[in-house]
Amino acid sequence: MSDTRRRVKLYTLNEDRQWEDRGTGHVCCSDEETSLTVTAESDGSLLLESKIITSTAYQKQQDTLIVWSEAENYDLALSFQEKAGCDEIWEKICQVQGKDPSVEITQDPMDESEEERLEDLEAAHVLDLPACEPEHLEEIAELVTSVLSSPVRREKLALALLNSGFIRKLLLLFRSCEDAHHRQALHHLYEIVRGVLFLNKASLFEVLFSEECIMDVVGCLEYEPALAQPRRHREFLTHTARFREVIPITDSELRQKIHQTYRVQYIQDIILPTPSVFEENFLSTLSSFIFFNKVEIVSMLQEDEKFLTEVFAQLTDEATEDDKRRELVNFFKEFCAFSQTLQPQNRDAFFKTLANLGILPALEIVLGMDDVQVKAAATDIFSYLVEFSPSMVREFVMQEPQQADDDVLLINVVIKQMICDSDPELGGAVQLMGLLRTLIDPENMLAPASKAEKSEFLSFFYKYCMHVLTAPLLANTSEEDHDLTEGSARVNPVCPDNFQTAQLLALILELLTFCVEHHTYHIKNYIMTKDLLRRVLTLMNSKHTFLALCALRFLRRIIGLKDEYYNRYIMKGNLFEPVINALLDNGTRYNLLNSAVVELFEFIRVEDIRSLIAHIVDHFYPALESIEYVQTFKGLKGRYEQEKERQSRGLSRYRRDARSFEEDEDMWLNEEEEEEDVSDTGFDKSKSDYGKFMESEKAKESQDKENQPKRSTTASFKFTFAHSAAANANASNGSKPPPSSSSSGSRPAAPPAGLTPRTGLVDYPDDEDEEEEEEEEQEQAPRKRPRLGS
Fold first, then answer.
1. Which of 139, 249, 574, 647 sits in a 20 to 30 Å window from 355, CA-based?
2. In whole angstroms, how far apart are CA 144 and each of 83, 120, 131, 204, 355?
3. What global pTM score does this model have?
4. What is the pLDDT of residue 287?
């Protein structure tokens, strides 16, 4: 006989008792080898080769499924596209095993020792059941419970229940017992129905979950003996739970399948108790029943193009009422969730169908609605789409009409939802930030066209979207008047005291830090044209330490690139000043901020970034030389002295001519002058877009400003070094001082003696040169970090 081939999906059951898709192919059953083979339709590879063994139990389920186990804890399933193909392969299996094709299970796995232990049973094939009467319910319940430990007896009981129509008789008896309020009989019926479910037989589920039986099954499960009063599951399913048809479903089979799936899922999740360790495998077939039902529902809906087209038309229609649109969005959310049960090829086709029908333009509309539930559901749908294909979303975004306002671009709508999240914990903002990160990640851009896609999309993002993302950051770090009298408390640029705003800025900084690591050219241009790093470092003065750490992490990533353009920008703007101030304001406390700042300077020392070393020692060493519990700053000084010594010998390999830096920087800024103009225009517009949002936050800050404590209560100090003094002198002559220069300064005073010394946590190679000096100073108490300005 020639081989027969049918299109199938191959599934295996994993350790979590969930079915995993192994691919689509064609099944072949040969008479010569008596084996099942599945060949992949994509590349012709062999997905399965399984010999048909006479002792293996094969089950036929739902007309298109064949399920069997090849070893302990290794279950397989073939899902046929056509019922005729399933019937033909089933006949081949039964022919090899010598079974009647009309049965739904060939035999139960057993060994000879199991058979010997069961020889005392009366019959070999059929188990005699007690009469279905109230007085025999206790006996039936004990029988059902006793067979659960034996696969052979479970199978015999299942056959007996099916052959005699016993289940329908039990459900009729349930109705009469409930009408008579026969509580004891109802308790026995609960045990019986629960035990029948634990038999884990698909053929029984077909009867139990049929339209005429399932509500009586739910009724039996209401009368748990441990409860004083019965549950009201039927009342919930029939009156509380409502089936909402966003568009009328004309296919009666589809409607019945949806109802059945919901009710069976309710039985599994709500009614049945959590199975014990010994019972966890009893309901594996029930999970499979639900899984394949969901696959069938999604396939039937996807094939109905008229239905989906009508849904999209109503979703995007401006005349659609808010309640109706909310139902439509929730439908698509659940539809996408069901699609996760599809195999990869079918899932790809599913999302492509949604994309062709216009799911992304529809999301632009619903994401901008005021309804919180609609926005949450739309965010979940957008999440499914981004996880499925970031490139598809990026392609849509870049194809949007460029003449349209930037505010209606999909990515800008998403950014606005992140910024304006009303949740105090910013749960939605965190989810949206993760999706944005996925979209701008060059690592997931298509390999063949990765270079073009990366360049085009990032240019688009930085031109049309980056100003929207950074608007809250720039608005909350605007500079104040620095004209203060000497000795007055230091007033840094405005820092957000509102916790929710601080959380939002932390999310934005996390995304910008990711950009620094992955978008070298575009983010560098944006940082320098916007002087973004200076604005970020004003957050070092925030009372929220986590926000100060985010700002510090942003600087650390920039320095970690060891890019001389960045280094020149940092030195020219004196951008280490807020970091040094934060370190000194932190006082003598050991905490994460202290460790992060020390690690930053230790990285500069270890990597020997000589331009930064010279800048730090020239401008900040007087304030840092008293820090002795780590050798980082002495190490910086040591490297600085070594470099000066090399310079004096004419061996300097470190510094480039200062004019070359100036020429390079002028060239950089001239090249990006045009993009700077575009970016400035975008930012001015974004400030007005977010005016209401930011004004409300400012109002909260102004109300609490006088009552909010400063981060440092022991000192008020700001550096004025040589270049700052020169800048102030220039200011008196009409020149503009650097934005970060301060109006007053102080040399740290010597700390009092007798304080407990700190012990260095790390030994460095450069420490050996200083051991003799440390031995001489052991008799004196080491100095602690000064509290400057006190």
1. 249
2. 33, 18, 14, 14, 51
3. 0.63
4. 86
